[in-house]
Design goal:
heterodimer, A: mainly alpha, elongated, B: mainly alpha, 0% strand, membrane (chain B)
């Protein structure tokens, strides 16, 4: 594993890095926008249609024909607009992950509960028990989607917040050093990498 | 069966309330913006989750359950984005995090003769 923590002696380094990151991101955006065609599959449209129908029905729970047809019409309108905007692709609708997602979510829920207990302990023990740390760790995911899932999982577990994502490195603010050590061990990283395969 | 559900629901609600209270106390206690954000994380994830699960157990059949599950799912999906945006905005605006001295400055200090 090529995980490492930057020497934290001057935290200014990291801050400068984060500031530089904004320029990098703008450049990256310019490079990506012009020729990127979303890969559109019929299954994506179908799953979006299904999700929208379910969403509409759960929120309204009507069953008389007039309202059902109005709901159907609004779903079709949304589908048409989504097509015009070219936003239906494998990133906005990651159906290729759906087989492995429930297992990962269960594991993440367990991690969230463990992290919650530790943060609540720190809260009640007071300021002397925490050791706020800013560190950089590597993300081994290949796709942007995988990296985003990894960074969001880090942020979702209390005690660690992903502050920035530069290429393959995630900058993390953690409530205590142990949190960073847990992340450096790389179990979450491996899980997400397996998820996107 | 109803009694068990009622008790389980009550326990979940109580635990959720305790976690939300802890999050609030953390916001008051912790030293700076970033550490306070971690305290909010407790309220956001397990606090809200436990309260929603408690409410689900109150009415385990019907459409209310589905709606509550939807709320839980969206809370968990949207929270990280909001936390990340807050943290990044703070860091870009030069709000320096309070870091632990023993890990950061202690190493550089010259040892006294």
């Amino acid at each position: 594993m090529a995980l490492h923590v930057l020497p934290l002696a001057p935290p200014m380094n990291l801050l400068a890095k984060v500031r530089k990151m904004s320029i990098n991101e703008d450049k990256l955006l310019d490079k990506l926008t012009p020729d990127k065609k979303p890969r559109l599959l019929p299954s994506h449209t179908f799953s979006l249609c299904l999700t929208l129908s379910l969403f509409w029905w759960i929120n309204s729970n009507y069953s008389n024909p007039l309202l059902l047809s109005l709901g159907g019409a609004s779903i079709l309108l949304v589908l048409y607009i989504a097509h015009r905007m070219d936003v239906i692709d494998h990133e906005s609708l990651p159906i290729h992950l759906s087989a492995k997602m429930p297992g990962y979510m269960l594991w993440l829920a367990k991690e969230i509960i463990v992290a919650n207990i530790s943060v609540v302990k720190h809260i009640w023990l007071g300021n002397s028990s925490i050791s706020p740390t800013l560190a950089t760790i590597d993300a081994t995911q290949r796709t942007d989607l995988g990296k985003v899932i990894y960074a969001n999982s880090i942020t979702l577990t209390p005690g660690t917040v992903a502050v920035g994502l530069v290429d393959d490195h995630v900058i993390i603010h953690a409530l205590s050093k142990e949190n960073i050590d847990t992340l450096k061990a790389g179990r979450m990283d491996r899980r997400v990498t397996e998820l996107e395969k | 069966m109803n009694l068990i559900l009622e008790i389980a629901s009550g326990l979940c609600l109580l635990l959720g309330s305790f976690l939300c209270l802890s999050g609030g106390i953390g916001i008051l206690r912790f030293p700076d913006f970033y550490t306070r954000m971690h305290a909010v994380g407790v309220t956001d994830t397990l606090g809200a989750g436990m309260i929603l699960i408690g409410l689900m157990l109150q009415n385990p059949q019907g459409i209310v359950l589905l709606k509550l599950m939807m709320i839980l799912l969206f809370t968990l999906l949207i929270n990280p984005a909001a936390s990340h945006a807050l943290a990044k905005a703070a860091l870009r605006n030069n709000l320096h995090p309070v870091l632990d001295e023993s890990t950061n400055e202690g190493r550089n200090k010259p040892s006294k003769p």
